[in-house]
């Protein structure tokens, strides 16, 4: 299935009855004079995990950061093209970026809990977005978010202890709970397991699998095995180009492009 048809601007994804959650069209990203992303068009499906793979420096993280305007925080970075969320331009003048980043949440490579209690890490977003009417509401949000992130049983008796005192894998699940707490529609994950041991990695992968029906998930990973395990769609980037985007099973068993074949068979990268 080739959905990179920029002429087709309808929201429905060809050959499916699905509507794209996010749609990128002709996206270019520059750091000063250097172009890091070249004319990339890609759809993000609502109830699937999309993996972004490719050799180091190919632009995976740069593209990911376009999806919730994290690149706005890099002064030399310039983005052109169109990116929409539910058909609405996320780079539009009236877009509230704080609101956008709640709808399109992000989990980073290194777990980065706030220097606050476990409870306050999760409650922080709902508090600033005014999502709870009272303390009981907030308790409920914290409970549900920690439960969805698969962390509740491990922390329920120590919600007052610092988030930073948890293990790396638990900290990453705390960051996922923090993201979930503000009801995102899309979750971006930038190599979320790269700082974790194999057991913590397996737990996060299981969690991604559980979350996939509820959120559109986009994950950058260096591990092709991880992409194959957790994603339904895979986008292969090379030197800023989107070389191939397809069902994950096709990318890993029957890629159309020579470059993809070379990468997945370990010839470079
Ligand atoms: N803040 C920045 N300032 C200048 N150039 C940058 C910046 N961030 C990334 N780049 C450049 O943009 C290109 C793409 O980088 P990016 O980090 O998006 O690639 P990546 O595929 O995610 O790499 P990796 O797998 O190593 O994390 C690289 O050439 C990189 O040097």
TrEMBL record:
Pfam families registered for this protein in UniProt: ABC_tran
Membrane association type: Peripheral membrane protein
Keyword Hydrolase attached: no
Keywords: ATP-binding, Cell membrane, Membrane, Nucleotide-binding, Phosphate transport, Translocase, Transport
CDD domains referenced in this protein's UniProt entry, alphabetically: ABC_PstB_phosphate_transporter (cd03260)
Alphabetical list of InterPro entries matching this protein: AAA+_ATPase, ABC_transporter-like_ATP-bd, ABC_transporter-like_CS, P-loop_NTPase, PstB-like
Biological process per Gene Ontology, one example term: phosphate ion transmembrane transport
Keyword Cell inner membrane annotated: no
SUPFAM superfamilies in the record: P-loop containing nucleoside triphosphate hydrolases
One cellular component term from this protein's GO annotations in UniProt: plasma membrane
Domain ABC transporter: residue ranges: 22-264
Subcellular location: Cell inner membrane
Gene Ontology MF annotations: ATP binding; ATP hydrolysis activity; phosphate transmembrane transporter activity
PANTHER family: ABC TRANSPORTER I FAMILY MEMBER 17
NCBIfam families the UniProt entry points to: 3a0107s01c2
UniProt function note: Part of the ABC transporter complex PstSACB involved in phosphate import. Responsible for energy coupling to the transport system.
Protein name from the UniProt record: Phosphate ABC transporter ATP-binding protein
